[in-house]
Design brief:
Radius of gyration: 20 Å
Number of domains: 1
Strand order of the largest sheet: 1-2-3-4-5-6-7
Structural class: alpha/beta
CATH topology: Metallo-beta-lactamase, Chain A
Largest sheet: 7 strands, mixed
Number of strands: 15
Strand content: 15-25%
CATH architecture: 4-Layer Sandwich
CATH superfamily: Ribonuclease Z/Hydroxyacylglutathione hydrolase-like
Number of helices: 8
CATH class: Alpha Beta
Shape: globular
Helix content: 25-40%
């Protein structure tokens, strides 16, 4: 979802729909910012769309009324915003993504918005505009069924295996088209700034394991939500993407030669170069917090009092 914010997108001059293999098509997002993402069209006996954030203009050639199935890789708005464009489609998700799709309080909990009022006023940029939550308005989605890891989806002459790839969100999923050698990794998106784990329920260790899982599949073509399809040096690019998590941890460590609190670390451009979007500082706080917790477990960092951390 929020990989879109303050990140550089690939832009293309070619067609909006790119055929990856017979019946498997990449639908380019009509815009390079939130709430848009690239989508996948399965044009087989069962017509399906994986993620609906490409935009109504991008989906016009797809003939949305003829789509039988919508699959949301996770609950984030840029992957679900166009669900309403497919009135006849059943909607499938991983069970762990069901709560934030059908219940607003669950969405706020997954994202961590229930914690905003607990953030120290020492760093007001964190809460300056997030209290109203107008940027991501409430919206409830219908869900008709569930997909879990290892499930095989038979679209007709095309089959895909469901990959549970948690970390970005708990129930984040991707798809492996084994015969075609294609992996769709959704928000394991290979954006140069690295993985996004700014939700309350995002998980660093899970994210790393999910990236390793894709690397082990050795895809011939790799598709994700915010970059064009990749055909060259895929494993190398996945490893570079993975390594940015460790690089971020090193950046956190650079600031901890003397005790600092979590709030004092936010705003030092450890993750975001700019704070021109109302949620950036909030997300950065969530991400730095995950690094601190992991660094304490690794005994790289010690908690010197109730709020402050320092290098061990």
């Amino acid at each position: 979802m929020f990989a879109a914010v303050n990140r550089r997108y690939e832009r293309y001059d070619n067609a909006m729909i790119i055929e990856l293999a017979p019946g498997i098509k990449f639908v380019r997002a009509q815009s390079a910012g939130f709430p848009y993402c690239h989508s996948i069209l399965i044009d087989s006996e069962i017509r399906a769309v994986i993620d609906t954030g490409a935009g109504d203009k991008a989906f016009a050639p797809v003939e949305p009324e003829r789509v039988d199935l919508v699959i949301n890789t996770h609950y984030h708005r840029d992957h679900t915003a166009g669900n309403h464009l497919f009135p006849k489609a059943r909607v499938l998700v991983h069970p762990l993504e069901y709560p934030p799709l059908v219940d607003e309080e669950a969405r706020r909990y997954y994202a961590g918005l229930h914690r905003i009022d607990r953030i120290s006023e020492i760093n007001p940029m964190v809460i300056k505009r997030t209290r109203s939550d107008k940027i991501i308005p409430p919206r409830i989605f219908k869900v008709d069924g569930f997909l879990t890891d290892g499930d095989t989806i038979d679209f007709g002459h095309i089959q895909a295996t469901v990959l549970h790839l948690p970390g970005h969100t708990p129930g984040h999923i991707g798809f492996y088209f084994e015969r075609e050698g294609i992996v769709c990794g959704a928000d394991i998106d290979l954006i140069p700034s690295g993985p996004w784990y700014g939700d309350y329920l995002s998980n660093l260790d899970d994210f790393e394991a999910s990236i390793h899982r894709i690397i082990e599949l050795k895809p011939r073509i790799y598709c994700c939500a915010h970059r064009k399809p990749l055909r060259d040096n895929i494993q190398e690019k996945l490893l570079q993407y993975l390594n940015t998590i460790g690089d971020t941890e090193d950046k956190v460590a650079e600031h901890l030669s003397h005790p600092l609190s979590l709030d004092e670390l936010v705003g030092r451009n450890i993750i975001y170069k700019k704070y021109d979007y109302p949620y950036n500082a909030f997300w950065e706080r969530n991400m730095i917090e995950k690094h601190l917790e992991r660094m304490v477990k690794k005994e790289r960092v010690v908690q010197v009092n109730e709020t402050r951390y320092q290098l061990a």
